[in-house]
Amino acid sequence: MKKLPPRAENLRRALAQEAARIMSEHGIRDFLTAKRKAAERFGVVDGAVLPRNTEIEDALAEYQRLFGGDRHTRSIASQRNAALSAMQILRDFEPRLVGPVLSGTATEHNDIQLHLFAERPESITFRLMDLGIEHEVVERRVRFGPDRVVAYPGVHFDYDDQTIDATVFPVDGIREAPVSPVDGRPMRRVDADELEVLMESDSTSLAQ
Question: How distant, in Å, are the alpha carbons of 23, 55, 110 from that of 42?
Answer without folding.
Answer: 16, 17, 26
